[in-house]
Amino acid sequence: MFGYGSLIWRPDFPYLERQLASIDGFARRFWQGSHDHRGTPDAPGRVVTLVHEPSGACTGMAYRLDDEIVQSTFEQLDHREKNGYERHEVLLQFANQSEATGLVYIAAEGNFAYAGESHPDEIAQIIAMSHGPSGANQEYLYELAAALRKLGIEDRHVFDLEVRVRKLATRD
Ligand code: SIN
């Protein structure tokens, strides 16, 4: 199982081991609307999805799951990721050059909650204002940025939004 957003910093499922992995051809973007976790149907927040970027690669966390609980774990995750995400098979590449097939939740362009590309200021405004049943949208961004930094993963899109949202938050 490959996580690149909240599944990096809040894996609420048991796993046997985890390690950094990358998948080619994708970039992490705050282009998915959140009606159920970090926003509401009337005022959706913004969370990450993966978008195709032919020359890009996304680094995240790969989890190895016990065979016995794979099915129940994915049932639980299907519920958590129900707002437009679908499971896809991808090739995971590890630092030691080994590879494995894994599953990743992607909210593809055109899903009912897809927000798409917007100016970073607009995304920052939404994140700064939004709240949902799982908490403040800001918290999601800050936790993700902190986790990426701790893991040594450089992600300009995320770090740039973090700066913009912190500026808006201190202005209020
Ligand atoms: C993921 O973390 O892999 C999917 C997106 C999210 O739940 O934040």
List keywords for this structure.
5 helices, single chain, alpha+beta, Hypothetical upf0131 protein ytfp, two-stranded antiparallel sheet, 172 residues
What does this structure look like?
There is one protein chain. The chain has a three-stranded antiparallel sheet. A two-stranded antiparallel ribbon has the order 4-5. A two-stranded antiparallel sheet has the order 6-7. The chain has 172 residues and is an alpha+beta fold. It has one domain: Gamma-glutamyl cyclotransferase-like (Hypothetical upf0131 protein ytfp). It has helices at 6-9, 70-80, 120-129, 137-151, 156-171, and strands at residues 2-3, 17-34, 45-64, 86-93, 99-106, 131-132, 135-136. It is globular. Succinic acid binds next to helix 1 and strand 3.
